[in-house]
Specification:
This protein is α+β, with helices and mostly antiparallel strands. It has one domain: Gcn5-related N-acetyltransferase (GNAT) (Aminopeptidase). The chain has helices spanning 12-19, 22-25, 36-48, 95-110, 125-133, 162-178, and strands at residues 2-6, 53-59, 62-73, 78-85, 115-121, 137-148, 151-161. The chain has a seven-stranded mixed beta sheet with strand order 1-2-3-4-5-7-6. β3 (62-73) and β4 (78-85) form a beta hairpin. It is globular and about 45 Å long.
Length: 184
């Protein structure tokens, strides 16, 4: 059974490893091996910042990935999000869809924010398609936004509004159940 739990201090080593895995790093904005001191500084800032929330994605209690909200802005009622799976072989099994539903529910039903944003490298078209299935709309393209492997990559800017999500939530849950994805 899939679940989310808040990141704890004991997760730092696992996150350090995951952030440097090739199948995770290829979709991140950084293009270098993250050093331990760099990771430790990031982890310290990330877990102390009230405008960020980090969850460990678990399958049967076993940690398999990370989901997060950043730039939580109550005044403008918005934030951004991202996620990754630490085990590459888990991609394509519906876990990302489950995570997306849980994060959307948290943002729009619990926090009651108006907008959720994300940026996805153009080299990751599967995630762009997944976000669009959940109702995200393309709001822009950041041309040659990130340099990776010596070349510049574009980044898609996507956004979803609360009213749009609420209008389609039941249909999304039905779609996921029909695909065999856990929705509870």
């Amino acid at each position: 059974m899939l679940s989310l739990r808040r990141v704890e201090p004991g997760d730092s080593d696992r996150l350090f490893t995951w952030r440097n895995l090739p199948h995770v790093a290829v979709h991140q904005y950084t293009d270098h091996v993250i050093t331990r001191p760099e990771h430790d500084a990031w982890f310290s800032r990330a877990t102390a910042d009230p405008r960020r929330v980090y969850w460990i994605i678990q399958d049967g209690g076993e940690p398999i990935g990370l989901a997060n909200l950043v730039d939580i802005d109550q005044q403008n009622s918005k934030c951004s999000w991202a996620f990754y799976l630490g085990a590459g072989e888990l991609r394509g099994k519906g876990i990302g869809s489950w995570v997306e539903l849980k994060v959307l529910d948290h943002v729009f039903l619990e926090l009651k924010l108006n907008k959720l944003c994300c940026e996805v490298l153009a080299s990751n078209p599967g995630v762009v398609r997944m976000h669009k299935r959940f109702g995200f709309r393309e709001e822009g393209l950041l041309r040659q936004h990130v340099r990776k492997g010596g070349q510049f990559l574009d980044a898609h800017v996507l956004g979803l509004l609360r009213d749009e999500y609420l209008a389609q939530r039941d249909a999304l849950v039905t779609m996921l159940r029909e695909r065999g994805v856990q929705t509870e």
